[in-house]
Write a structure and sequence with these properties.
169 residues; DUF4352 domain-containing protein; 2 domains; single chain
Length: 169
């Protein structure tokens, strides 16, 4: 009887260790951190949104469109930079109209969202819109790198979304 009890204890212990190891592998591979496979598949959908092609006639696209999944915060994203060749206020006015016409709802607007000196930049979107996309809420940000002290001749459009609700402008 003692041998049977010891064998049972060893088998239960080995099974428990296997479960702990499997849970660790799952957690390290994105189960608790990073992007889900659903959000990784969402990035190309975001990159194909027509709003990323819309821009004032005086501006020009810069570089290639980018997309991916933010492993730190676990959301899909896609964006496009444009050369700023028209006044900033005209760009903001243009996207207020263009995004609304494309079904985006204005969530917030701050024409000059520069962070205070020495503070953490939380939201540098001049405009933030939202719209349902692929079964979740997508957020469209119109932002200016110059608000962070970078690229005074550019502005960007970025769409973020996540199936677990962790995306924002």
């Amino acid at each position: 009887m003692k041998l049977k009890a010891v064998t049972t204890l060893v088998l239960v212990g080995a099974g428990g260790m296997a479960i702990i190891a499997a849970t660790g592998v799952w957690a390290l591979s994105g189960g608790l951190y990073g992007c889900t496979s659903k959000d990784e598949k969402l990035a190309p959908t975001l990159a194909s949104l027509s709003i990323l092609d819309v821009h004032p006639s005086q501006t020009q696209p810069r570089d290639e469109r980018y997309s991916g999944c933010d492993e730190d915060d676990g959301f899909a994203y896609a964006g496009q930079y444009y050369r700023l060749t028209t006044p900033r206020a005209d760009v903001v006015t243009f996207y207020r109209q263009a995004a609304t016409e494309d079904g985006w709802r204005l969530e917030s607007g701050n024409p000059s969202p520069s962070p205070a000196p020495g503070s953490l930049a939380v939201d540098i979107s001049a405009l933030c819109f939202e719209k349902p996309v692929a079964g979740t809420t997508a957020h469209l940000a119109v932002w200016f790198p110059s608000d962070l002290g970078d690229s005074p001749d550019d502005y960007g459009l970025e769409v973020t979304a996540s199936h677990d609700g962790t995306a924002w402008c």
